[in-house]
Amino acid sequence: MQWNSWAMHAELGVCSKSRTMVSTRAFSTVLNPRGRAFSLSHPAKAQSCSIAGGRFRYGVARISSFFPKLMWSEGFTIFGSPLEHACQLWPQDYSNFCDVIEEYEKEMKILARRLMWLMLGSLDISKEDVKWAGPKGDFKGANAAIQLNSYPACPEPDRAMGLAAHTDSTLLTILYQNNTSGLQVHRDGSGWVTVPPIPDTLVVNIGDLLHILSNGLYPSVLHRAMVNRTRHRLSVAYLYGPPPNVQISPLSKLVDLTHPPLYRPVTWTEYLGTKAKYFDKALSSVRLCVPLNGLVDVNDHNGVEVGWT
Ligand SMILES: O=C(O)CCC(=O)C(=O)O
Ligand SMILES: [Fe+2]
After folding, report:
1. What's phi and psi for 263, nearest 5 deg?
2. Integer distance in angstroms from the first to the last C-alpha of the chain?
3. Nearest CA to ligand 1 atom 1
4. Which residues of the chain have pLDDT under 70?
5. Active site residue 233
6. Nearest protein CA to atom 8 of ligand 1, as residue
7. Predicted ipTM?
8. Phi-psi label, residue 20: left if phi above 0, alpha if psi -120 to 50, beta otherwise
9. Pocket residues: Cβ below 6 A from ligand 1
10. Which of 31, 71, 183, 279 is the pocket-test mutation for ligand 1 (most atoms within 8 Å of CB)?
11. Which protein residue's CA is at the shortest distance from atom 6 of ligand 1?
C-alpha cells in the first residue's frame, strides 16, 4: 500500500468499524459550544487544571510558551480515565462524557495499532523486529492521550493563529475535526495546504517518534490550525506513543552502511522533555548525523517561519 507520508485520510469504512463513526458523532454533543466541556465556566475549567495530579489538563496550548502572542484556542488533555475529573466537573451528569471518551479511546487504540502495522509493514518490518510491541505485536504498553481542542470564532482571523506550526511528539496522531476547516500541513514546494474535514473521515499525522523509528522514512508532518471568522472549530487529537520508558531508535532492519542511524535512542518521556525545552529543534537535537540526501528534519521546519504576524 502506498502511504502519503505527510498526512493520510484514513477512511473509517476501511480502517475501523462503524462504532467509531458513532463515537465521532457523539463528540458533537460532548464538545458542542452549547453542550459540554468548553461551555464550562472559566473557574470550573481552571479548577480542572489542578485536580488529580495532571491526568486531566485544561489550558492554552503547551507550545504557547515559545510564542510571544497567545493562540486563539483552548484545550483539554485527558490521560487515561476521565472519570475522576468528569465527576467533579459535572457531579450530576458525568457518564455521557465519560462513556464517549472511553469508547472513543478504545476504538482509537485499535485503529492506531492497525495503522502502525500497515505503515511498518510497508517498510518490511514484522512483529519480531519491534520487541516493545510485544510477542503478539499488540503494542500493549503503548500510551495515549486525548486532546480536545476548541477554536472559537475570531473577528480578525488573519491576525490570529489557532495553534502555531509544530510537529507532534507522538508515533502518530489520529485527528477528528468538526465540519469547519482549519488544519493545514506544510509540504515542501507547495507551502501550507489545507486539509479540509471530510465527513466520517479522520486525518492521521506522523509524529516525531515514528520519524525516528523509521529513520526518517516516515517524516513527521509540520502542521498548524487556523481560525475562522464566524465558525467555532473543534478537533480531537488521539496522541499515540510507545511505552514511556522504552528507548525508541531507528529500526535495525532500516539501517546499513549507506543508511546509518540518523537518531540516537530516546524514550518518549525524555523526548517530551526535549520538546518542551527546544521545541522546533527537538528532533535535530537527538540527530546523530545528516541524512545522505542532505535534507534536514521537517521538525527544523526547513526554514519555514513558525510564528505569525
Ligand atoms: O486542531 C487541529 O486541527 C490540530 C490539532 C493539533 O495539531 C494537536 O492537537 O496537536
Ligand atoms: Fe498537532
Report:
1. -130, 150
2. 40
3. 235
4. 1-37, 39-54, 56, 292-309
5. yes
6. 237
7. 0.99
8. alpha
9. 147, 149, 163, 168, 175, 177, 182-183, 223, 225, 235, 237
10. 183
11. 237
63 is written with which cell numbers? 507550545
Q: Pick the catalytic residue: 36, 159, 224, 233?
A: 233
Q: Which atom of ligand 1 is nearest to the CA of 203?
A: 3
Start-end of H helices in 32-159: 42-50, 83-89, 95-122
List the Cα angle 231/237/243 in 5-degree steps.
Answer: 170
Concatenated DSSP letters of 25-66:
HHHHHHHSTTSSGGGS-HHHHHHHHHSGGGSEEEES-GGGGG
Quote the pTM value.
Answer: 0.86
Hey, whose CA ends up nearest to atom 3 of ligand 1? 183
The reported pLDDT for the residue numbered 30 is 58
- Residue 66 C-alpha cell reads as 515559545
pLDDT 10s digits, 86-105: 777 777 777 888 888 889 99
pLDDT of residue 206: 97
Q: What is the pLDDT of residue 281?
A: 93
